[in-house]
Amino acid sequence: MPIKVAENGIYKVADVPVVVRVARAGQTEAASRELDVARWLQSNCVAAVEPAGSRADFVVVDGRPVTFWREVAAHRPGTEQEIATALRALHQLPAPDFLREVDPFVRLDERIDAATTLAPEDRQWLRDRLASLRAEWGEQAPGQGWGPIHGDAWAGNVVTTTSGVTTFLDLERASIGPPEWDLTSTAIKHTSFGWITERQYESFWRAYGYDVTTWSGFTLVRDIREFRMTSIAVQAAGSKPEHAAQAQHRVNCLRGRFGPRPWTGWEPIP
Q1: Mean pLDDT score, 128-142
Q2: Are 249 and 266 in contact, with CB atoms under 8 Å apart?
Q3: Domains of the chain
Q4: How many CA atoms lie within 13 A of 77 on its CB side?
Q5: Distance of CA 203 to CAs 82, 181, 199, 218, Å?
Q6: Is 66 within 8 Å of 34 (Cβ atoms)?
Q7: DSSP assignment of 110-142
């Protein structure tokens, strides 16, 4: 039974508490590393999705890596305070040898190439903007002391079970990087989109112990995060025209056509 089918396919196995994750072709090493991350977190008492524990939690089928996981107990998206507390615990761990350095720009060129619903002028602007962001990242070594990060720490990937255990899901982007990379995911929900209130955001940074919006490098990481979110929308619109309006809206916001932040109208891409 499909749970979510996007860049990766996630399926529930009938009658047993097992979830199957089917990754993209060519992602064999990354898929295997997810299992390593999960076991490492478990050994350090940080709650995360767990490998199924079968004799073969990792196989390759028709070139696509397939991993098997224990189904997470009934859960809901984590609150801002819960996410902050979980991230603080993760960020304090010593980094394992198998984690790679974060790549803020992974697959962004391919997503722009797939943005067939955009006007050529908008696509060229995205390419130019991507080059500018890459250059800024290369010139600046952003963040506090680098260490293990989740890489995609939004509420759908940090959940809390009915028994009260806040748990990391989707470990594909786990890497070595600045902790601010994780913290910015929640910060922009308030500063860029107005999805959460000032009070909710304050509960986040107080629980973590640091307000990333006060950091000198926040603007750069914010801009990269917004660009990544836009790239997802423009890629999706290339194959599903019903997302074209949302993709164009995000581009318009980045290009200053919709006024200053916080912007309205950013909607989830299923």
Answers
A1: 90
A2: yes
A3: 2-71 (3.30.200.20), 101-149+178-254 (no CATH)
A4: 8
A5: 9, 18, 6, 19
A6: no
A7: HHHHT-TTS-HHHHHHHHHHHHHHHHHHHH---
Q: How far apart are CA 38 and CA 41, in angstroms?
A: 5
The number of C-alpha atoms within 13 Å of 259 and in the hemisphere containing its C-beta is 6
pLDDT digit string (tens) for 146-182?
999 999 999 889 999 999 999 999 999 999 999 999 9
Q: How many helices (H) and strands (E) does the chain have?
A: 8, 10
How far apart (Å, rounded) are the C-alpha atoms in residues 264 and 51? Answer: 39
The token pair at 234 is 């423009």
- Closest of 147, 173, 181, 160 to residue 44, by C-alpha: 147
Q: Quick one: tokens of 238?
A: 């290339």
How far apart (Å, rounded) are the C-alpha atoms in residues 42 and 268? 31
Amino acid sitting at position 236: A
pLDDT in tens, 38-63: 999 999 999 999 999 877 788 888 88
- Token pair recorded at residue 172: 């594909």
Residues pairing with 68 in the sheet: 20
- Reported as a pLDDT band with limits 50, 70 and 90, residue 260 is very high
pLDDT in tens, 181-238: 999 999 999 999 999 999 999 999 999 999 999 999 999 999 999 999 999 999 999 9
Cis-peptide, bond into residue 104, ω within 30° of zero: no
Side chain identity, residue 127: R
If we measure between CA atoms, which residue out of 180, 110, 184, 130 comes closest to residue 154?
A: 184
pLDDT average, residue stretch 69-81: 95
Question: Which amino acid is located at 100 in the chain?
Answer: R
